[in-house]
Every structure is written in C-alpha cells, then in structure tokens.
Amino acid sequence: MSERDTQAATTRVIAAALDLFAEQGFEQTSVEQIAKAAGVSRSTFFRQFGGKDDVIFADHERLLEVLRAFLDQTHDDPWATVCEGAMLVFRYFSDNADVARRRYQLVRQIPALREREIVAVFRYERLFDEYLREQLPEIDPVDAVSYSALIAAVHNHVLRQMLRGRKVAPATLRQHLDNAMRRFGVLGTDADPQDDDLVVAVFPRSMPAAEVARRVSAQLG
Asked: What Pfam families does UniProt report for this protein, alphabetically (predicted)?
C-alpha cells in the first residue's frame, strides 16, 4: 500500500470513529462499532490502532514518522528546516481540516484526551530540539530548546485558528515563522556575496554563537 493509500485509510477510520463519538458519545462507542463503520476487521483495527483513544491520535503518530524522515534528509540550514517541518505538519492538517476540527472539538470535551494531546504536541517540539542539537553540536541547549518551543508555539497558534473555523492559508503560517526566525536572529538573506569581496560580517546580538560559527564556516568553504 502506498503512503497516500495508507494516509487515506487512516483518515477514513478516524472519520468513522469521530462520527460515532458525535452520535452516541465517546464512552458509549466500542472498538467493534468503529471497525464495522470503517469497514475493517476487529483484529485489523487493534493491530493498526490499538484502542479507541489511539485511533483519535493515529495521524499524529504517522506525522511524527513522516517528520522524522524529513529531518533525516540533508538540508542546508537547520533553523529553516525546523520551520519547513512545521509547515509540513500544518499542510497535513489543512488538507484534512474537517477531521482535524472534529477531533479538536472532541478532545476539548474530554480531559484524558486533552492531556494526551498535550503530550503528542510536545513530541513535535522535542523532535525539533533533538534535530538542532544533532545538526549543530556546539549549540547552546537553551538556544535549541527555546527555538524549538518558539516554532512549535507559532505553529500551534496558527493551527488553532484554523481548527476554530477560520480559513488560514499556509502562507499565513510561513509569514509568522519568518518573523519568529527574524526575532531569533536566524532568518537568512537573499544577498549573494561576490567571490573576491572582502566581507565584514555583522550578526544580530540575539543570534546564537552556533549559527554565527556555521555561517562563517560555510563562507570559508
């Protein structure tokens, strides 16, 4: 089964579960009912999703795998790559906005699910943090965790606007992420220096020493 087919199958099961939760309540809905509504066997459901609360967050698990694979690829700028990862997550939820909004409404009503979603959201932030530390071994851990938290917070703020019913284009998130990078002092420039130039580099005081070193090293070849 292709990645697209797997994603479509997961979304179908999640949608079926949300339909039943809305009709008869979360506690009153059984795994057997969800499996039947989604057109899968009970054994297949348990093998792929686990319990009925697991199916609600199944796309988070898949997204984390996709995001991890994306970060494992070769990228030129670790700071910008974290933002691209946030864009990847946002586009997924934007493409599946109906399911995402219905889950948001359900999770808000059930404290146990709300706590689990908090943990799921933190895993994205931790993945960004680990990526920066791996790509920039000399980075100050405070810079890594602060930047990861900033990007995750910006993403979540814009995503919540969409989940509450507003139409939010990916370009809106992109603009906010650029502003976040600018505040952190790591937004790149489009200016290309000449090979024979003598360059005096000036960096924002807020830019982490690790990023200053990376950019100078890149220019020295």
From this structure: TetR_N (PF00440)
Q: Which one of 3-12, 102-111, 156-165, 199-208 scores highest in mean pLDDT?
A: 156-165
The dihedrals phi and psi of 27, each to the nearest 5 degrees, come to: -65, -30
Tokens of 111: 């404290």
Among the listed residues 104, 155, 96, the one whose alpha carbon sits nearest the alpha carbon of residue 125 = 155
Alpha helices, DSSP H, located in the chain: 3-24, 31-38, 42-48, 52-56, 58-72, 78-95, 97-109, 111-135, 141-163, 170-184, 209-220
Q: Which of 180, 164, 177, 42 lies closest to 108, judged by CA?
A: 164
DSSP 17-36: HHHHHHHH-TTT--HHHHHH
